[in-house]
Amino acid sequence: MTGLILNEREIVIPGDKIASGMDYLPGNGAFREEEDIYSLQLGLVSLNGRFVKVIPLTGKYFPKEGDIVIGRVSDVGFGMWMIDIGCAYSAILNMRETPEFIDKGADLSHYYDFNDVIIAEVTKVVRYKDVSLTMKGQGLRKINGGKIIDITPSKVPRVIGKQGSMINMIKEGTGCNIVVGQNGKVWIKGDKVEDEVKATEVILKIEHESHTQGLTDTIKKMLEGN
């Protein structure tokens, strides 16, 4: 028998056979042995064209170039800031990578101080130990007000949805401004505390039930108060 053995979004454990034959190629979280593709980890089967991937149900954040992340200033150094983005090593934000013009020798804490929270983009990753950030780009800025919640980084695509469908529905249903970082940090800011609480409950429900069928309808009803 050739082709897919398991359906998309089915839960697999390490060693589960997902597909047989050469029509499919192993992606992240999967490997080939002879003509069969197996899972490397506990997760959900995901298809992208001919590629078969396994999205981990749990896991830490591993930064990639181009990721939009939410981080907290953990240290102010000479000409740069150290930013905690939730991975094993702090990321570096050079003073030249901020939207402001900063004079050489200026007190950097006047711009971004300890514990300030920012939205930034990952520009370079070297073995996860050397991570560089930039704040030059649309929507990249310091965050003021609102709240930050943490979700499992692997659940971020489910919270965002296809072409942003899920997160846009949450924004419209709660009236909140929401930014989802690829590192699992989510910023929520609404006009009222109740709106932020509602958005938080919805996002956490998606995280906990990301593997279930009909989740979009469930969330829609939740936002409508049914």
Produce the secondary structure layout.
Blueprint (H helix, E strand, L loop, with lengths): L2 E2 L6 E2 L4 E4 L4 E2 L3 E4 L2 E4 L3 E6 L2 E6 L11 E9 L3 E5 L6 E4 L22 E10 L3 E5 L7 E2 L3 E4 L5 H5 L4 H10 L2 E4 L4 E5 L3 H16 L6 H10 L2
Parallel strand pairs: 4-8, 11-13
Antiparallel strand pairs: 1-3, 2-7, 3-6, 5-6, 7-8, 9-10, 9-12, 10-11, 12-13, 12-14, 15-17, 16-17
Give the number of helices: 4
Structural class by sheet pairing and helices:
alpha+beta
Order of helices and strands: EEEEEEEEEEEEEEEHHEEHH
Low-pLDDT segments, ≥5 res = none
Please report which band the strand proportion falls in: under 5%, 5-15%, 15-25%, 25-35%, 35-45% or over 45%.
25-35%
Largest sheet: 5 strands, mixed, barrel
Helix content: 10-25%
Strand order of the largest sheet: 9-10-11-13-12
Mean pLDDT: 92
How many individual β-strands? 17
Q: Provide the CATH superfamily of the largest domain.
A: K Homology domain, type 1
Termini separation comes to: 45 Å
The CATH architecture classification of the largest domain is 2-Layer Sandwich
Q: What is the CA-based Rg, rounded?
A: 20 Å
What would the CATH topology of the largest domain be?
Ribosomal Protein S8, Chain: A, domain 1
